[in-house]
Specification:
It is found in: Endoplasmic reticulum membrane. This protein is mainly alpha-helical and about 500 residues long. The protein is built from 23 helices and two strands. The N and C termini lie far apart (about 55 Å).
Amino acid sequence: MADEPPASLSYRTTGSTCLHPLSELLGIPLDQVNFVACQLFALFAAFWFRIYLNPRKTSPEIRHAFATIFGIYFVIFCFGWYSVHLFVLVLMCYGVMVTTSTSNIHRYSFFVAMGYLTLCHISRIYIFHYGILTTDFSGPLMIVTQKITTLAFQLHDGLGQRVEDLSAEQYRLAIKVKPSLLEYLSYLLNFMSVIAGPCNNFKDYVAFIEGRHTQMKLLEVKWKLKGFHSVPEPSPTGAVIHKLCMTLVSLLLFLTLTRTFPVTCLVDDQFVHRANFLTRLCYLYIVMQASKPKYYFAWTLADAVNNAAGFGFSGVDKNGNSCWDLLSNLNIWNIETATSFKMYLENWNIQTATWLKRVCYERVPWYPTVLTFILSALWHGVYPGYYFTFLTGIFVTLAARKVRSNYRHYFLSSKVLKFVYDVVTWVVTQLAVSYTIAPFVMLAVEPTISLYKSMYFYLHIISLLIILFLPIKPQAHIQSQPQILKSVKRKTD
């Protein structure tokens, strides 16, 4: 693992230094203090935005302008002159959008955005050297890259594709008019998502700014309120309070578990040689669990900020209760109880998984799973640990599919067998995920190889044997997702 940064570097940042006394008092790096301060300020700004700049009494242009100005200020506060990278990428891709033909807008935007992001990732290796991630401007850059490419593909679907060539979802999200500069900047740089995301669809964002978001989502789920001339606007207060409570718990876990179980112990020579394999495997699971709360904290807080502004409403459940999970990036319960690798991935970093599906998995003609994992690794960065994780993930995913298709149906005949199957697959899934994501946390080659050698490369070997020798049983009754989407009859607007 890379050496820990010197204490004197722990508080360096190219952003604002006005909170340096607080940083020293808490013993937390200044860049992290700036991040939390911006998100908390964004939370209060979101409530103000929803109440005082309500779309019923404020024009969309004013809402766009305020959301953009606040977002730009937050970026400069957190990252200082490094925020130039964000603004350069946004303006470059706006130039691509307005000058490129609709038949190529998605290709050029994708290569420009991913190319610039990759160059910035490469520069981080030489500037920040693995673990020293102070003033890590790549986070907002990654979110903006997702939004730029999402917008470009949806413009291509709306302006450069025939209706019959689109899936039902692509048709629903297609954009038929290029956004203005103000709309474009607001979508990419708004204060609700510029620091920590999540990515969202342009149509949803514009509907939120214009005050159509709630009714649009209610109509999508075919919700009918008889006797009302208009749909009452649901309040996000309950959802925000619930998510803030989850954020607080995640923060407490981060400040305790993460520091108590450092990842460096996994490759400590004394631990590796004294502990048996089962002990090392269990400790690997504990360490990986301890690394999650920081993601739970950041993503749940970002979700709460958007909800506080009135964005993120997804409809109503069967009991008529409002749901505010349109922008949620994770489902903690489903993650911790996942009984398959697929279920785990579907509930972790949900918006990124959705982005990968829409710009890669559904569109590439060959090896969609492999290319999607490669794109995910490239988007995350160029640290070797990312590629170890995602290449391992390819093997695990393919092996898990074969095991499931061959054996799952044997355990569905009774509740007892199904319970046994769920328990066994939960244990296997959690250990497999811990094994797979360990390099993602370690980043470097040497500790990754050291860890996998201490584990005898057991998951790589098992996955490879399953892929090579276990046949896939055909399931003719299950229609593939692309076929399902293609078969849905589209409706006019």
